[in-house]
Write a structure and sequence with these properties.
Low-confidence stretches: 1-35
Strand order of the largest sheet: 1-2
Oligomer: single chain
Strand content: 5-15%
Structural class: mainly alpha
Distance between the termini: 57 Å
Mean pLDDT: 77
């Protein structure tokens, strides 16, 4: 019986952060069970200030514009005019840029895999801005530093 209560308690502790806030006006602290029955608080990522929030919003907005202009949201396309050597995937990455991202991210990048393509494009935007796309489909909104 105690074992069943322990399992039930564990399930409640894990699920509460997901559904608990809608069950009460004064939610319990968010906690989760981890190794050896230790409890630790769960917290959302905390932004240092509003500049970080605005930067993240700007990056997401520019990324959405790039995807729309470059591939219309289609992950398996190549540049229609010049072929795959001139752009591949959602953000139309070129081979030299893919290689550059692979070095920086220490990961193999498949430009036709949306997750890989977006990982590379996001890294480029966060670290180098829109210069990889500006001359072809830009200009894009400014990303705060």
């Amino acid at each position: 019986m105690l074992k069943r209560l322990g399992v039930l308690f564990t399930i409640v502790l894990i699920l509460y952060p997901i559904v608990g806030k809608s069950l009460s006006n004064s939610p319990l602290p968010e906690i989760a069970l981890i190794q050896q029955n230790s409890l630790l608080p769960i917290s959302e990522p905390v932004y240092q200030d509003s500049i970080e929030i605005e930067r993240e919003k700007a990056i997401n907005k520019v990324l959405a514009l790039i995807i729309q202009r470059e591939s219309s949201g289609r992950p398996n396309v190549c540049n229609k005019k010049y072929g795959c050597a001139s752009g591949m995937g959602l953000t139309q990455l070129i081979p030299s840029t893919i290689h550059y991202c692979e070095e920086k991210l220490q990961k193999r990048i498949n430009p036709f895999n949306p997750d890989d393509n977006l990982m590379c494009a996001r890294w480029l935007l966060e670290n180098e801005g829109t210069k990889h796309w500006d001359k072809f489909t830009g200009p894009y909104p400014e990303i705060p530093k």
